[in-house]
Every structure is written in C-alpha cells, then in structure tokens.
C-alpha cells in the first residue's frame, strides 16, 4: 500500500473574504499535495476555517449578525476560493462543526488528566486582533505613544479568571524538539523559536470568560477555550479524532503543517506541548512560508490595496497565477507581486517559451506528418544531449527541489530545459528539413515531442489544468503522467498505436496588462 502523506494548511479566519495570502498558502499546499500524489504517496490534504474567538464575535456584532451566520457566509468564500483555484483538498474542516467541539474537548480532558491544567487569574496585555497576551517587554510604542503588540496591533490591560496550561514544564522537551533541524523550517524561523523557548516559558492562559463564542471547557461551563487551543485541534478533528482507528491511524502524525511565518510560535511551541501533554504523537514537519506583499507593501484596508485573489485568477487564468506565485517567490521568504510582474513572467515563460515550443512542435507534426507521431530513424548527438538535459531537469532536479519545497528552484530548472529545447528547434530548423531530409525532420520532431511530454508531466503539480490539456492532446495516458513512467520507453508504443494529433490548441494564452494598471 502507498505510504501516507498528510498535509494541512492553517485554517483561515473567516472574518473577511480571502486575501492573496490565503490563496498563496492554499496553492502552495496544493502543489505539494499534487506533487506527492505524483510520487505515488497516499495523500490526505486538509484545509478549513477557524471560526471562533473574539475577532469573529466582534466582527459579527459590527455587522449585526450572529457569529455563526458570519462564519457560514464567510467560510463559503474560502471553500469557493479553494475550488476556484483548483485546490485538491480532501477535507475542509470548519471549527463550528460538532465533531470539532468534541475533538477539542477530548484533547482538553487529556491535558487535564495529565495534570497540566490549573485555574488561576490572568492579567496582562491582550491583543484582540492577535488573540494573544503579550509581556510588557514585548510591546512596542505606537506613533501616539500608545502600546502596541509586536505585530503592531492595539493591546488592552485585561483581567480574567482563566485555565492555564503548564507550558513552563515543557521547556526542555521543546528545546530538544527545536534542536532537531528537520522539525521547523526555514532555519531562520527555527532559530527564532529556539531563542524564544530558551528565554524561558510562562504558563499559557487557555480559557476565556469574557465572551462565549467558542468551544466550552469541559466541566467549566462559563469558560470557552482560547481560540488557538481549538484551532490547532482541527488537524486531529479532520481525521476522526478521538476515534484513533481509521483515518487517524493511517495519517497521523501529520507529515507537514504548512503555515505563514506569523503563526510559527503557535505551531512549533504551543501545539507540540499540547500534544505531548495529551500523549499524542507530534507532527513531523512544520514549514513557515513568507508573506506576500503587493508591490512591496502589506495589503490593508486602510491603504486600499487589498486584492481579491479570485479577481486575479479570473483575469489571468488559474494556472498563470499558480505558476507566477510558485516561480516568483523563493519559498520561505517574503515576496512581492503586481499585475505587471504576473503578466511579464507568464508571457515570457509560459506563452512565449513553453507554450510556443509546444504549439510549434505539435503544429508541425499535425501539418507535416499528417498528425501521426514522427518516426525515429537515427538519433544525432544533439538529440541525446537534449534528452539528457530535459530528463535531468524534469525527472530529477524538479522533483528533488519540490520535495525540498524549493519550488522556484525546481521551476528554474524546468525553464532552463525549455530554453534548451527552443535553442534546439532553432538550430535544427525542422521546417527546412521537410524538403531536404524528411527522415531527419521526423527524428527532430519526435525528440521534441518526447521532451515536451516530460516537461508537461513535470508541470502538473503547479499547472494541473494546462498540463492536462497539453498531455491530452498529445495522447499521453494518465498512467504515464508520473516522473518515473515518463522516463521509460513510452514513445514507440504510442506512435505504433496509430495515435493521431488533432489540430493543436494553445494552452498558454498571452496575457494583456490593461492600460489602467500600467
Ligand atoms: O492565522 N502572505 O488565520 P489567518 C502570505 N486562524 N501568507 C499570509 C499572509 C500574506 N500576506 N497573510 C496571512 C490565522 N497569511 C489562524 C490560523 S491555524 C490552526 C489557525 C497566512 O486567516 C497566515 O500566516 O490570519 C496563515 O498561515 C494563513 O494565511 C491564515 O491566516
């Protein structure tokens, strides 16, 4: 049986519509999920929405809605975003579902049973926006001298009765966990978390009495759980926890929690401590990606630069947007996007390079070979050189880079191979061989056909629809669409099967940057 691979995204706050950061994370997770499926893994992919907490309650009040109504309306936008961006999730977990309350209460009971929870009073600087308490020493001064959280959000002095989690008891275990280089990446985040844990951990306030929009604390009906306790539990809920047979037995521990850099502490300090306390195995890896900026600036309502990711997808095509995001930004670092950058990159690399290569090759086969796949007589040294280069890029360098979550590096190898193919076409000029050496023309077109098929298969995780449209036209069967299968000798059987190309249809349109954005 295939080896399991469980990947999750963070669950988004549905207190507004999805923004580009949500789209970025969902797309990156989908690329990983599709890549792992192509590598033969049994993938389980979960995403969802984080619907409790003060932020949701306040937003609902502002709009004159019940929090559940707001959650229902808004979470649908996140489902639509995932579907619209071709995100192949298996489970969309909403935290207002009864089974999630049940899972969160079970986790709580287990932490309580291990003696890690106690009731006390909490006083501190609380940021509603971050849903977190901060130490005085962590605060920064705002422009008017007011106190702000390290994220720059307002804080209020707050006093309440609260359940506490003995986080301090886990310091040594957390240091040991974070010393393992593999647990959290990139390295800069790991170092940040190690420094945070080494500086000493205070117990964590994990319940609230000041509002009731959350999961009830078992046995303390006037308390709801701190939203992060229930939010993190979603990763277990989706597998059927507390039932530990079935999906839970198959997919836990999670292979990868993919999150943004701002929530690394919750996933690499608090979450492992909760799990250790409850006697549940820890996730294997956490990766914190960077932030996506709009022309170098954080998007915000006040700057009026918030972009609807679905608008970009409609305008430029889902696969163009997916390609741009994976190619443009070194994964793990912050990156910037703009309409011009999307248009420039997609036109140069997809329309003019890969699209043009495929279109001119298939058109020549259609016209000059009557659509039948060209015959190979004898390969020249240049053909072997191209095969070697394309094969290495598409079935070795790209998969290795993707396995290491270095998407932009993998796609750079992919582009370099396409560049080599285009140079080969220009040098071989098959259109002039038609009259002078038709046998050589056929061999050149076959060499290109084989290379394009490999490159299209390599692009599947990033551009699933476009790659499929191209491979369908080429008669490449679904069982050939893996890195291993596309390396073997599939060309002759396909050519001998009598397969015939139809008039080729381009799959990478040229994008136009509308004048108002120039
Ligand atoms: O943090 N660029 O939800 P969220 C890239 N509910 N990624 C970004 C981003 C940007 N500009 N802005 C946000 C939450 N993100 C919690 C998570 S998990 C148990 C609970 C990322 O809607 C962010 O880092 O604020 C996070 O990974 C995800 O989007 C959802 O953010």
UniProtKB/TrEMBL annotation:
Looking at the record's lineage, which domain of life comes first? Bacteria
> Where is the motif named 'HIGH' region mapped on this chain?
12-22
Query: Which residues span the membrane?
Result: none
Question: What is this enzyme's EC?
Answer: 6.1.1.10
GO MF term set: methionine-tRNA ligase activity
Q: Does the keyword RNA-binding apply?
A: no
- Residue ranges of every copy of the Methionyl/Leucyl tRNA synthetase domain listed in the record: 6-362
Tell me where it resides: Cytoplasm
Which Pfam families does this UniProt record tie to the protein?
Anticodon_3, tRNA-synt_1g
Tell me what reaction this enzyme catalyses: tRNA(Met) + L-methionine + ATP = L-methionyl-tRNA(Met) + AMP + diphosphate
Q: Which residues form the Methionyl-tRNA synthetase anticodon-binding domain?
A: 375-477
InterPro entries the UniProt entry points to: aa-tRNA-synth_I_CS, Anticodon_Met, Met-tRNA_synth, Met-tRNA_synth_2, Methionyl/Leucyl_tRNA_Synth, MetRS_core, Rossmann-like_a/b/a_fold, tRNAsynth_Ia_anticodon-bd
**HAMAP family, A to Z:** Met_tRNA_synth_type2
Q: What does this protein do?
A: Is required not only for elongation of protein synthesis but also for the initiation of all mRNA translation through initiator tRNA(fMet) aminoacylation.
* Entry's family note: Belongs to the class-I aminoacyl-tRNA synthetase family. MetG type 2B subfamily.
Assembly: Monomer.
Could you tell me what this protein is called? Methionine--tRNA ligase
Gene responsible for this protein:
metG
């Amino acid at each position: 049986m295939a080896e399991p691979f469980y990947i999750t995204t963070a669950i988004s706050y549905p207190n507004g519509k999805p923004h580009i950061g949500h789209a970025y994370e969902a797309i990156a997770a989908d690329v990983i999920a599709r890549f792992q499926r192509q590598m033969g893994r049994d993938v389980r992919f979960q995403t969802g929405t984080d619907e409790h907490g003060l932020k949701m309650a306040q937003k609902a009040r502002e709009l004159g809605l019940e929090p559940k109504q707001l959650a229902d309306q808004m979470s649908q936008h996140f489902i639509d975003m995932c579907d619209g961006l071709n995100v192949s999730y298996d489970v969309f977990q909403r935290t207002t579902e009864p089974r999630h309350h049940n899972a969160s209460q079970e986790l709580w009971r287990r932490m309580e049973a291990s003696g890690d929870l106690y009731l006390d009073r909490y006083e501190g600087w609380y940021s509603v926006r971050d849903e977190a308490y901060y130490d005085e020493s962590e605060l920064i001064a705002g422009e008017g001298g007011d106190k702000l959280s390290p994220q720059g959000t307002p804080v209020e002095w707050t006093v309440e009765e609260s359940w506490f989690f003995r986080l301090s008891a886990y310091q040594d275990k957390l240091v040991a966990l974070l010393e393992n280089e593999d647990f959290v990446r990139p390295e800069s985040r790991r170092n940040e978390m190690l420094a945070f844990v080494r500086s000493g951990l205070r117990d964590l306030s994990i319940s609230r009495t000041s509002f009731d929009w959350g999961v009830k604390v078992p046995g303390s009906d006037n308390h709801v759980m701190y939203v992060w306790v229930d939010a993190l539990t979603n990763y277990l809920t989706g597998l059927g926890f507390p039932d530990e047979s079935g999906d839970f037995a198959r997919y836990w521990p999670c292979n990868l929690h993919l999150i943004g850099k701002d929530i690394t502490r919750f996933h690499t300090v608090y979450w492992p401590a909760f799990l250790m306390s409850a006697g549940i195995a820890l996730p294997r890896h956490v990766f914190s990606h960077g932030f996506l900026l709009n022309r170098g600036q954080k998007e915000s309502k006040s700057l009026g630069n918030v972009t609807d990711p679905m608008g970009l997808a409609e305008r430029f095509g889902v696969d163009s947007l997916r390609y741009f995001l994976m190619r443009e930004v070194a994964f793990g670092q912050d990156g910037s996007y703009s309409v011009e950058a999307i248009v420039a990159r997609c036109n140069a690399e997809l329309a003019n390079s890969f699209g043009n290569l495929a279109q001119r090759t298939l058109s020549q086969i259609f016209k000059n070979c009557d659509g039948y796949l060209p015959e190979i007589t004898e390969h020249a040294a240049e053909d072997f050189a191209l095969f070697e280069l394309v094969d290495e890029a598409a079935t070795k360098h790209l998969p290795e880079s993707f396995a290491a979550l270095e998407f932009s590096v993998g796609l750079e190898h992919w582009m370099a191979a396409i560049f080599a193919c285009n140079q080969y076409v220009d040098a071989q000029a098959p259109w002039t061989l038609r009259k002078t050496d038709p046998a050589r023309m056929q061999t050149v077109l076959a060499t290109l056909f084989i290379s394009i098929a490999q490159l299209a298969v390599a692009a599947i995780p990033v551009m699933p629809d476009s790659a499929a449209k191209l491979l369908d036209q080429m008669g490449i069967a679904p069982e050939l669409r893996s890195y291993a299968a596309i390396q073997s000798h599939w060309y002759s059987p396909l050519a001998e099967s009598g397969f015939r190309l139809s008039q080729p249809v381009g799959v990478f349109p040229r994008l136009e940057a509308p004048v108002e954005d120039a």
